[in-house]
Structure formats: C-alpha cells, structure tokens
Amino acid sequence: MSTVTIIGAGAMGSALTVPLIHNGHRVNLWGTELDGKIIKNLREGKEHPKHKCKLPDGINAYYVDELEKALKDTDLIIMAITSDAIKKIFKRIIPYINGKTIVGSVSKGLEFNKNKRIVILPEVLKESLPEKLKDEVDFVVVGGPCKAIEVIFQSPTSVVYSSQNIESAKYMQSLLMTDAYRVNVNKDVVGTEICAAMKNAYSVGLGIAEGFENINGHVHNNTKSALFTFALKEMIKLTDSMGGKIKSAIGLSGTGDLEVTGEAGRNRMFGKLIGGGYTPSQAVEKMRNENITVEGYSAIKFGYDLVIQLEEDKKLSLSDMKFLNNLYEIVYGNKPAYKLIKKILHHYSN
Q: Could you give all domains of the chain from N- to C-terminal order, each with its CATH number?
C-alpha cells in the first residue's frame, strides 16, 4: 500500500480517489481555500457537492490549514489545481518536499516563465523549485479524454501519463490503473501538455458552433465537425513546432481529449453562450457568478501569444493558425462570431 496526496478537492482531484481507493492505497485529499465545503461534506460522509454523489469510504480529507499532515510520508503528490492557481499552490508544497519525489499533474495550461516566455506548466513548476530539488522532483503530466464524473462511475477510460523519466510515469501508472481506468505511458511531456492546454481553447470554438442554434434555430453539426478537423490540424502544427510528437496530437492526448471536451464541459459551455448571443465578457461574468472556471478563456490568449512567440523564433506562422487567430478575435476582439467562424471554413477550403 502506498500513500498518495491529492492537492485540490475539485472535480478531477476528487475523482482520482476512486481508482486509488480501489487499488487499496491510502489517499489524502487536501482542499484549497475554495474547497472547504467539499472537505466538510467528505468528513461527514455526505455527497461531494460538485459531483452530487458520495466518494468511496477511506479518503482522508484535509482542510487548507492541514497541508503538512496531508503530505506526511506521502509516496506520490498529484496536483489537481486549475492552471491559474497551480503555481501559487505548488509553492506552498515545496517546503515539505524532501529528496526524490514524484509530482503528478492533471492541471492543463500554459504560463510565463521567469524570462517572460510562454512554456508548459511543468517547466514553470520546476522553475519554482530551489536548485537542490530541481533534479530530485520528477513531473508526470496527465492527458487524454477523461471526464471526472465518469472516473467516479468507473466508466471505461483511457488516459496518458507522460514524464521525462518513464519510470516515474510507470510508477504512477502502477498506483492508479484499474480494470476501468487504463493508463498509457510515454515521454512526450511537451506533446501531452500542448494538447491538454489547446483542446480547452479549441473547445470554446466548438461550443460557439453549437450556440448558433439559439440564433438561427437549427443545429450546426456540419460546422462543428469541420471545426474539429481544423482544430486538430492546428494542434498538430503547434505540437510539432514546440518539439512534441505528432503521435500525441493524433492520439488520446489530442484527438481524444478534444472530442470529449468539445462534447461536454465548461469550455464548450462558454463557447455556446458566445455563439448564442452573449458577448465574451457577459459569458465570462455569467460563468464566474456560477463559480465556474473557464480555462479555455485564458488558453486562447496564451495559445495566440505562443504562436506569436514561435513566429518570432521562425518556427510557425500565425497565418497557418486561422482557427486560433479568429477565435482570439472573437473572444478578445469582440468580433462577430458567425462571420469569423465562416471565415475559418473559407480559409480551409481549397
């Protein structure tokens, strides 16, 4: 039996307790300042307020001021924090890291490093470590099509764990893989992370196509399917330009995750509001009022700026990323969604 500490008691952090408990491990679930009600419910044996169902017995739930207890004698740390907060939360954990440590991450996004260049999240986390720990901590990133509630219900699921140290990925795989929760391992951290971040951005575009039904009175499945194809093309280009493997983009990390996120989730919902007539700022406000974090909103901006960065490095051209470019214009430039979505399809017509 191993001890695993999950940092963040939200949707995915809580869901990962299921395969871990199933495999007989000791599971510590630590909640941030935003997770107080979740931790209280778990301690009282009540439903998880987000999932509306009970989690398995045996979870050790810790409040925000109990981080040291949650991390005591742990064999694996899993970061399950939204991308906008992961750096801040990770810094709290660093004082409790001693010697060789494996840190898994289900957080998805891009961030600026100390040199103001956009990089994948593991690079930012590694940069936060003191020099003496930089070679002691192995990061394992998680990608692939995985809705948290389906992990709880043990729907057959297939994901990817990527690490520069393949043995660390295999170790994490050994702790979490079950008959229902299947894990593939590889070393393509860049490919997995780029796809994980950018599928959030492109899923907003897929949601926009769905939202057109509220304006035009009929579904736009043709539009959405075309956009899916163009999104995948651009994810392949971006992954390749960043040094990731095309195999990741056309596999579970790219195609798989894009499909499931475009069918259900916060980013699709955000896009659907815009396609249905909300301005981007109105859509953001509505979802914030409902305490919903839309990672795709910032992913569009980071993705756009990353392409500009790669253009300066002569590795990619913004003109090759018409879907992302027009998505940026819709969300950050308040340009008309229907007109610009048509523009994307025009660009990709021979």
A: 3-187 (3.40.50.720), 195-347 (1.10.1040.10)
